[in-house]
Amino acid sequence: xxxNVSASRLNILIVExxxxxxxxxxxxxxxxxxxxxxxxxxxxxxxxxxxxTPDLVLLDINLPDINGIEVLKSVRSHxxxxxxxxxxxxxxxxxxxxxxxxxxxxxxxxxxxxELVARVKALLRRVEWTPKPETHLQVRQLKxxxxxRQASIRGQRLRLTPIEYGILLALMRSAxxxxxxxxxxxxxxxxxxxxxxxxxxxxxxxxxxxQKLEDNPRRPTYVVTVPGxxxxxxxxxx
Length: 238
Hints:
It contains nine helices and twelve strands. The protein is α/β, with parallel strands linked by helices. The protein has two domains: about 10-130, Response regulator (Rossmann fold); about 135-230, Winged helix-like DNA-binding domain superfamily/Winged helix DNA-binding domain (Arc Repressor Mutant, subunit A). The strands form three sheets. The chain has a five-stranded parallel sheet with strand order 2-1-3-4-5, sandwiched between helices. A four-stranded antiparallel sheet has the order 6-7-8-9, with helices on one face. It has a three-stranded antiparallel sheet with strand order 10-12-11. Helix 2 (about 40-50) packs parallel to helix 3 (about 70-75) and helix 4 (about 90-100) packs parallel to helix 9 (about 200-215). The N and C termini lie far apart (about 40 Å).
């Protein structure tokens, strides 16, 4: 469990079947102050996650035994462990598939060491961040306990990934007002995302959040689209 945004003492698991790539990524992260270890297949990754509980996982999609997306789905069935998917393909479809399966972020190879470290640190900051001085927010039947990082609706607890939690927090803190795509990107993902103007990561995570929030995700009442601008959460809804 992440308790400090500093890299010190945080364990990162790299799941990568290419030995040269794994070695370079480990070296970059170790140099940044993390404890990085690697495995080269999906089965070993699932075992390592179960036994060692790393603070974050970098997961390649193309693995020799189990597809990385399946590894991701397996982990997400019982854990909200921060996970960044790595892929040799920059195709939008692969990115969407990874995000829909529960990835917190997606990086296409090749990437710079600086970008890798920045993405890892940004995700770890989002996981640990608890805003002050607020402790509770409520919009109609939706409640958010920030001290515990827990959300519930109609008395039922929601199982949210760190990204989904961040989106929900941003919308609830601005309930009754439009939160633009750029604002969501900046608050939840960071400045580097807001600057590139790619909203697909927002749309995919909004869709996943609606599946958990709404009685009818096709006709949302909690996360409502404002075409061309962003999203808003109505305080009252008839």
